[in-house]
Amino acid sequence: MSTTLKIDFVSDVSCPWCIIGLKSLQQAASQLQGKVQLDMHFQPFELNPQMGAEGQDIVQHLGEKYGMGDAQVRQNQEAIRQRGAALGFRFDMDSRSRIYNTFDAHRLLHWAEQQGKQLALKEALFSAYFSEGRDPSDHATLVAVAETVGLPADEARAILSSTRYADEVRAQERYYQQQGISSVPAIIINEQYLISGGQPPEVFAQALQQIAAQTATA
User: Fold this and answer.
1) Cα 38 from Cα 71, distance rounded (Å)
2) Rounded to the nearest 5 degrees, what angle is found at the Cα of 119, between the Cα atoms of 8 and 19?
3) Which of 21, 114, 153, 211 has the most crowded Cβ, counting Cβ within 10 A?
4) Domain positions in the chain
5) How far is the C-alpha of 25 from the C-alpha of 33, rounded, in Å?
């Protein structure tokens, strides 16, 4: 019998390790098909909440934030690209040259959950940014991406031109910060167990299996 586990996946659409973590988690779940089912909920986290509308050059940003030099940035990007490729996700490092504000993307994701399209939109936003180098703060881009997963463009446009869901997203961000989440991805299982970072599929598979067994006997 399959056990359903609630997953609160705290992440940002501009975080490369978040898509690596998501793909690893999905691969682990597919290995446990018939035993474990995931009830996925994406929770907002902004890596750069103060980022201006124009964004910032990635190399400059990483240098200022983490003290990384150009060579170290390139080395890190290649490691990320290889991890993504092993999981079936394409990082195009040449097309992605800037970091952007992601608050409006999180507002759309909040709405998409109500429409049953949150996972599809999250994956589409990851692809738009990391594989195609598109700007996840640009409203026209967000509307177009939302439309590709079956969300109505007119409603997406109306949400983005308003402040709808801003309070809800801010409240969720504060909640997870108050729970001690300071880096992403943070994967919370059944509101009890935390797995941090873009772990390999086998780490997720082992954790899911153990938690499912404990849940089934509880």
Assistant:
1) 39
2) 75
3) 21
4) 3-217
5) 12
Terminal C-alpha separation, the chain: 15
Q: Which helix (H) or strand (E) holds 48?
A: none
Residues 6+ apart with CB under 8 A from 79: none
How many Cα neighbours within 13 Å face the side chain of 188?
14
Question: What is the predicted pLDDT for the residue at 57?
Answer: 94
Please list, in sequence order, all residues whose beta carbon lies within 8 angstroms of the beta carbon of residue 58, skipping any fewer than 6 positions away. 73, 96, 97, 98, 99
Q: Superfamily for 3-217?
A: Glutaredoxin (3.40.30.10)
Sequence-separated (6 or more) residues with CB below 8 Å from residue 144: 153
Is-contact 3 39, C-beta < 8 A? no
